[in-house]
Specification:
The complex is a heterotrimer of chains A (about 575), B (about 250) and C (about 325).
Chain A (H helix, E strand, L loop, with lengths): L15 H5 L4 H29 L10 H37 L7 H24 L12 H5 L3 H31 L12 H33 L12 H35 L6 H14 L15 H29 L8 H24 L1 H7 L3 H31 L5 H27 L14 H31 L41 E4 L4 E4 L2 E2 L2 E5 L10
Antiparallel strand pairs in A: 1-2, 3-4
Helix pairs in contact in A: 2-3, 2-4, 2-15, 3-6, 3-7, 3-8, 3-13, 4-6, 6-7, 7-8, 7-9, 8-10, 8-11, 8-13, 9-10, 10-11, 11-13, 11-14, 13-14, 14-15
Chain B lengths: L17 H36 L1 H8 L4 H26 L3 H32 L20 H9 L4 H7 L2 H40 L9 H25 L3
Helix pairs in contact in B: 1-2, 1-7, 1-8, 2-7, 3-4, 3-8, 4-7, 7-8
Chain C lengths: L1 H7 L21 H32 L16 H30 L6 E8 L2 E5 L5 E2 L2 E4 L4 E7 L4 E5 L4 E5 L5 E5 L5 E7 L12 E6 L1 H12 L1 H4 L2 H11 L25 E3 L5 E3 L2 H9 L22 H12 L2
Parallel strand pairs in C: 1-5, 4-10
Antiparallel strand pairs in C: 1-2, 2-3, 5-8, 6-7, 6-9, 9-10, 11-12
Helix pairs in contact in C: 2-3, 6-8
Amino acid sequence: MSSEQNVNYLNCSKGFSSWFWTLDHKRLGLMYLWSTIAAMFLGGIFALTMRVELFAPGAQIVSADQFNQLFTLHGAIMVFLVIIPSVPAALGNFVLPMMLGAKDVAFPKLNRFSYHLWLLGAIFFVSSMLATGLDTGWTFYAPYSTVHSPAYTAVVLAVFGAFILGFSSIFTGLNFVATVHKMRPPGMTWFRLPLFIWAIYATGLIQILATPVIGITMLLIAVERILEIGIFNPALGGDPVLFQHMFWFYSHPAVYIMILPAMGVMSELFSTFARKKIFGYSFIAMSSVAIAVVSFIVWGHHMFVSGQSPLVSIVFSAMTFFVAIPTAIKIFSWVATLYKGSINMATPMIYAMGFLWLFGIGGLTGLWLTTLETDIHLHDTYFVVAHFHFVMVGSALMGFLGGIHYWWPKMFGRMYPERKGQVAAVGLIVGFNVTFLPQFVAGTQGMPRRYFDYAERFEIYNQISTFGAFLMGLSLLTILIYLIRSIKRGKLAPANPWGGATLEWHTAPIPDPHNFDNAPQVGDPYDMEIFKWDETEKGYVPVNPVPGLPYIAQPKADSGDSH
Amino acid sequence: MSEAHAHPEHVAHHFDTAEQQFETGKFGMWIFLLTEILFFSGLFVVYSTLRNNNPEVFAYAANHLDTDLGAINTVVLLISSFTFALGVRNAMLGQRKALTVNLLITFLCAGAFMGIKYQEYTHKYHEGLLWSGAEHSVFKEDLSKVLPSVREHSAHGHTNAIADAEAMTPEFRREVGLFFAIYFCLTGLHGIHVLLGMVLIGWLIRRNARGDFGPHNFGAIDFGALYWHIVDLIWIFLFPLLYLIA
Amino acid sequence: MIPKMLSFFHFLPQDGEGDFFFPAQASNLAKFNDWLFYYILIVSAVFFFAIMLSAGYFSWKYHKSRCPEPQPSPSHSNTIEFVWSVIPTIFLAYMFWQGFVGFMNRQNPPADAYQVHAQGQKWSWIFQYPDGTESNVLHLPLNRPIEVSLGSNDVLHSLFIPAFRTKMDAVPGRLTSLWFTPTMIGEFEIFCAEYCGTEHSSMITTCKVETQAEFDAWLEEAGDFISKLPPVEAGKRVFAMKGCAACHTVDGAVGIGPTFKGSFGTERKLTDGSKVTMDYDYVYESLMDPQAKLREGFPPVMPTFQGQMDDEKIRVLVEYLKTL
């Protein structure tokens, strides 16, 4: 059954306008996908440049000023343009309505507006780069960013860019939350929602509640810079630590915006590729929302040495330990899902295993940083840099790439090359470890972060790290190339190559523009047995197809709650 | 069995019923208003911090605000909220002309609010009642940096803030400047929202003239009114916190 | 036994020397810090490898080539979920508690602690002693509790002494503090650990821990150097102490600010096109109000030294500049 002959969301209309002005969540998801990938490569080039510079002490290929700009832009691009939008906006947009059983998100025009805002924000960031000089760090700490940094225009452009991108994120979160509340088909109760949807929903809650605060904070930087308002400027009576509180009030929950969707992807991957119902569904679902809520009361753990009162630090440390518990339990649940399953170690599953390793290290190293005593020594050293790269890049990237490979057949009706996928995934994971593991040691030995030049004794860690970075870059480039080539040249994909039971796999190999003509029947999202392997199809087909609708698998008659 | 043809024209294709569209829209607007509250809350936190650190400064500085104008503005906004709410009722009952009238009154009230705001702002600019970093401010830590023209206007203006400024310690002057910093941030951001609201009301008036609204389709009016009520509510908090703490 | 094993692999400091992870344990804070670090490391490593080995084992044992179909198994279990919630919680609570204990110890300096003030500015530290002596290098006496108060002239900085396991931000407009007792003679790196601009990574100095007698001798000599040393020598000391070298070279090399080699007494061009002679008045004005007469081609980043340089110091500084 060739998907090429039917009308699908890719071929139903052509031309730039049909894409730029589309209201179809699937097309928007793809555009977000290419946009965030492009931004990632730009941020990655800055990272590689830094790693070349840091190969040895002293100036190698850039000056101190240029280095400071590189780490600022690398951080700002990666945080605001790549990681925050990537899984929710690219994968979420593509998958969520189909997985829910809906025709589209609640507000398709708002969805398109969100994407256009991303583009506008990106333009502001690029303008800031062209204005040159942005050297404040992506954290824009006052009073350096508001008074002392020489880069006036670049700072103002960048914070307006971040402001606009914030609204892109808010509207996406608003859209998804409204969609999950109001667009569920009959029978789709809350506890029949797939865990990816729970994750995107919890993320949406954070996007809605936290992002406005960074919005006003960015606006205040611009106002401080342009009008010299003085709220954060001690020379005018203001308080620089107040800035840090406002900044981290968003930026801590923001890291959960980055990780929760990736965890949602992991839930889907572990169950599909073990062909088993996820272990502890209720816990994982509720813990996603719980983590989202608790993420709002831990921000001060970024500020233990900022001069804030000890009592406040103690409270934040305790709260942060608290949020570690549901996170750890998720990991145990995923591993338990593998028990007595039937495991297919395809590329998406390699990313899932990689996630266990990278998030294991990333999450556990957080313990050193939330422990008050040990954080004093480790704060603002390379230990922190390694920690957040393990969680933000290691884990979120595993989610992003794992999800891309998992849903790639549904996006383009083609398979990516499996062997290349596996090799590149392993290369990326190994390269990642080589890059960032030495940085933990550089940190404990005392190497501060954001250092252009460093003492001789830190050289070995930096050299190993640079080698790893190039291995990562090579792997990512390989992935990009084979993915692009597979769009036209990949093997034609069946409607359900992996045997997933969630509703997006009940659509045509390349989905219809409207996803479903009728609301699909809702059953247990993790009951793999409604599909069976078909040798001729080289994919999974419904055990009980609906007459006239060959892709929809009917739920089992006694299907109740997914517990 | 596509339901597309059964859809009334005003119901979007991805919704099954008009009711679902309305419910979803309302839900979405409430979430958006929640984000607006959080947006302003950042400034309220700045206000609390600054005021907590300098309570006497705030009490003193608030004296320089015109409470009468602020009170008039409060009443004006409340009236506009009322007329907008009446407009929602008009839309529900299909009373197109009444809706236009109420929307117009709301628009005019908003305009009056902005007019009074303009008055307040220009007066402050003239007399140098600005944040310390502003060129035109009298509250500079180093008084020699106050512009001569500002000195003139302030001494002859009815606040005579320059005399007060000269009597203060440099630190106190700095802190008074911070009061005006947060004053202008809060009222300025609020003013921007009022302006955006005026654009929204104008758009609704135009759509109503085209006959878009009726008992089966009044969502946009309803949601617009919700936005306007939040804008009003935020002012209800701003007014006492800034004007009534003297 | 485990400590012995770890020390075999140089994973635990021996006699205060540095090991794989840490520099020397040179303060009273280091032992507990390092111990807690290793505690967390061991607990984390045990859990981490337990998880990874289980995942690896299951992936192998239940691979589809061995198990074409999944076998029935529970999708939740109250007992298991309870156990794997409670046990980690206990470990986490212990970690929090120990962190809290160490943290509280750091908040309470002994009443007789020796007071030093550290003032940060772009891009150097100036340490001020109770008798008014100033220094770039943090000289300290061994085995005495030291309380360092921190301030900043411009942006956020952070005083970080890795060997002492201590760090605290210097916040402009505020006073923060930290305390420790140096327990080892030697010279230890001091880094700035809060990004502060172009030369953030060069804002480096050392902490020199010496015996009480050596320290007293140094303090006396350093405190009175203006009257004790010839003016040019004294001026050179002022030049080093006030952090001028962070931006101004004396050998003609290009820096953030103009070089002083051969410049005193000559005419210099300003940003507004006018010319000025670099004399005593110009140096004085530049120290008090650096942006008033800015040299052409240089950025406006010089901090003001108002309130930090008395006329004596400026006098000898000028004597030194004359010799360049």
